[in-house]
Design goal:
The protein has no helices and eleven strands. It has 122 residues and is mainly β. The strands form two sheets. Strands 2, 4, 5, 6, 9, 10 and 11 form a seven-stranded mixed sheet that branches. Strands 1-3-8-7 form a four-stranded antiparallel sheet, with no helix packed on it. It starts with a strand and ends with a strand.
């Protein structure tokens, strides 16, 4: 069983930045493809970005391309989501998820964290 834990959320003003961290442990978590998602009240969960286990490949949703950057540090077993130029529309709960299958881009995510809240004030 892979355990996933997000951190780094908080309150930030419009135009500010946050870096979210995703720590994964158990199984072969450090070798798995990993994605970031978010969900705002009343909306469906939205895909944001994914990275391959070596960090050589990345895939972004159009809504965040150019503002968000996904990266990973396998030595620390951590995946990051750097979020810049934040807008009130970015307010949501952000989730990290791990995909077991090596499919690229990932199509199925098997293990999910409980999320970290991001609030962007105007």
């Amino acid at each position: 069983q892979v355990r996933v834990a997000e951190s780094g959320g908080g309150l930030v003003q419009t135009g500010g930045s946050l870096r979210l961290s995703c720590a994964a442990s158990g199984g072969t978590a450090s070798t798995q493809n990993t994605g970031w998602f978010r969900q705002a009240p009343g909306k469906e969960r939205e895909f944001l970005a994914a990275t391959s286990w070596l960090g050589a490949r990345a895939h972004y949703a159009d809504s965040v391309k150019g503002r968000f950057t996904i990266s990973r540090d396998n030595a620390k077993n951590t995946v990051y989501l750097q979020m810049n130029s934040l807008k009130p529309e970015d307010t949501a709960r952000y989730y990290c998820a791990v995909a077991v299958a090596p499919t690229w881009p990932p199509s199925v995510y098997d293990y999910w964290g409980q999320g970290t809240q991001v609030i962007v004030s105007s």
